[in-house]
Amino acid sequence: MTLLDVRGLTVRAADGRTLVDDLSFTVAGGERLGLIGESGSGKSLTTLAVLGLLPDGMTSTGSVELAGTQTVGATEKRLSAVRGRDAAVVFQEPLTALDPLMRLGRQIAEPIARRTGLRGKQLRGAVRDALEKVRLPEPDRISRAFAHEVSGGQRQRVALAMALACEPKLLIADEPTTALDVSVQAEMLELIDGLVQEREMAVLFVSHDLAVVSRVTDRVLVMKDGRAVEQGAVHDIVRAPREEYTRALVASARQLESALDLRSPR
Amino acid sequence: MTGTDLLTPTKGRRSRRSATLVVGCVLAGVIALLAVVSFFWLPYDAEDTSGGRLAGPGDGHLLGTDKLGRDLFTQVMTGSRIAVEAGAGSVFIAAVLGVTLGVLAAFAQGWLDDTLSAFLDILIAFPTLLLAMLIVAARSATLGSAILAIGLAQSAVVARLVRILVKRVLAQDYITAARTSGTSWPRSVLFHVLPNIWPTLVVNLALQFGLAVLAEAGLSYLGLGAPPPNASWGRMLQEAQATFTTAPAGALAPGILLVLLVIGVNLIADGLRDTLDPATRRRRT
C-alpha cells in the first residue's frame, strides 16, 4: 500500500527560480526511504511541501498524496487534519524546534491531548511514558524543564517524543542527527530505528550523510539541484552507483571512512 | 543547568537589576497610593476656596493654595488619580487594539500586508495633538476623550511592534514544528506566539504608560483634558504659570510628581526587561 505518493512535485521560489524540479517518489506503509543530497539540493523543501508548510512566497505544483489526501493546494483545514495524524516531523535543530518559553512536558502533551483527549493525571502519565520511550532519564524533571535547560541530545529526544506522540503513519526525519555530537548520533539513530520498527511506521529520512542514511533506510533517493539523480536500494547504490554524482558521494564517504581506518591503531 | 555556567550573571548584577524594579515600584506606588486614597478621602473639597489666595505651604494646607484659594495638595491628589487613569486607560486601549491589529497584520500577506503597514505608518505620523483635537471636537473635552486619543495613537505604535515580533516568531522552527503536529493557527498564536512576544510587549506597554501620562498632561495643559474642577497636573501647571515667581509650589508640586511617576514607570519597564527577557531568563534557571 502506498502511503506517500509524490508525482512531479515542483517547488518555485517567489522570484520564479525552480528549487525542486519534477520530483517523483513513493513510500509504502512501513517502508523507509532516505533522501540524500548536499545542502541546497531541495531535500528539506520537499519534506515541507509534503505537509503544505512551504515558507511564504514559495509555491508547489504537481501531486503529493499523503495517505490518500492531496496536500498540494489543499486548504489549511484539510492540511491540519493530515499533519500529525498521517505524518510528523523531527527537525534538524532541536533548540529552535522547541518553544523556548513552554515547558517540555506541555509541548509533548499538546499532540497527545489532541489525539487521545486525555486530561489531567492520565495526560501527565502519557507524557511520562512518551519520554521514557525515547529513553530519557528522569522524565519528570525533563517534563518540567525548558528547552534550554537540557542537553542537545535530550532536546532531540524530546522532539522525537513529540513527533511520535502524534502516532503518525509516516515519520519525517529532517537531518535529525546533524546538530548532535557524533557520539550521540549513533544512539539517536538506533533509537529511531527501534521505535519505528516497533510501530511499523514508514520513515522519510533526510540527510546529507550517506553513512547515516544507509544505517536507517532500505531505499535511497539521491538529489542534486532539486532533481532526483538516482534511486534504489541502499546497498546497490553504495556498491554500484550509476550516476556521476552518486559515485562522487559514495567515494567521499569511503574516503572519510578509510581516513579513520588509517588513523586507528591496528 | 546546561553547560552555560559561564554566562550566569553574578549575584550582585542580578540584585542591581531587581533594585531598578523596586525603586520604580516605590516611585509609581506612592503616586498610585495618592490616587487610590483620593477616591475615599481628600483634605478639602475640590471647590473649597476658603484657604485664601496663593497661601504658602503650612497652616492647614500642606502645599499651600492656588490663585483661587483651593488646596494644592487636594489638587495634586486628584491629579495623580487622573494621571494613573490616563496611563492605564490609554495603555489598555493600545494593548487591545494594538495586539489585535498587529497579529492580523503579521498574518496578512501581499497587498493586505502593505495596506495595513501603510495605514499604521500614517497613524503613527499623525500628530496625537491633532487627533485629540478632532476627538474633543466630536465629543467634548473630557478625560475620556484624551484617553481615547492617546490610546488610539499608541495602538498604532504597539501594532507595528507586535507585527514585527509576531512575524519573527512565526518564522521560528517551533511554530513549524507545532503546525506539523497539527496545531491550528489560533492555538499556535495563543500558546506559542503570544507567550514568546510577551516579554518585549509588556516592557513596551510599560514605556507607553509613561508616555501616556506625559501626553495627558500636555493635552490638559492645552485645555483638552479633564474639565474643571477635577485638577489634572497639566492644568495645574498651566494655571500656576503666571504666578510661578510668587508662589512656585503650584507649579513645582505637579511638575515633580509628573517626573517621579514617569521615571518610576520607566524604571519598572527597565526592570521588567531584565527579568522577563528570555535571553537573561535563560541564564537564571
UniProtKB/TrEMBL annotation, chain A:
Protein topology in the membrane: Peripheral membrane protein
GO MF annotations, alphabetized: ATP binding
Subcellular location: Cell membrane
Keyword Cell membrane: yes
Main location: membrane
Keyword check for DNA damage: no
Signal peptide location: none
InterPro entries per record: AAA+_ATPase, ABC_Ni/Peptide_Import, ABC_transporter-like_ATP-bd, ABC_transporter-like_CS, P-loop_NTPase
Location of the ABC transporter domain: 4-250
Keywords assigned by UniProt, alphabetized: ATP-binding, Cell membrane, Membrane, Nucleotide-binding, Transport
PANTHER family recorded: DIPEPTIDE TRANSPORT ATP-BINDING PROTEIN DPPD, OLIGOPEPTIDE TRANSPORT ATP-BINDING PROTEIN APPD
Family recorded in the similarity comment: Belongs to the ABC transporter superfamily.
Name of the featured protein: Peptide/nickel transport system ATP-binding protein
Organism: Streptomyces clavifer
Phylogenetic placement of the source organism: Bacteria, Bacillati, Actinomycetota, Actinomycetes, Kitasatosporales
Automatic annotation (TrEMBL), chain B:
Subcellular location: Cell membrane
Ranges for domain ABC transmembrane type-1: 80-269
Transmembrane segments: 21-42, 86-107, 119-137, 143-162, 201-224, 244-269
UniProt KW Transport keyword: yes
Cytoplasm keyword on record: no
Keywords: Cell membrane, Membrane, Transmembrane, Transmembrane helix, Transport
Membrane topology reported for the UniProt record: Multi-pass membrane protein
Family: Belongs to the binding-protein-dependent transport system permease family.
Protein's name according to its UniProt entry: Peptide/nickel transport system permease protein
Organism per entry: Streptomyces clavifer
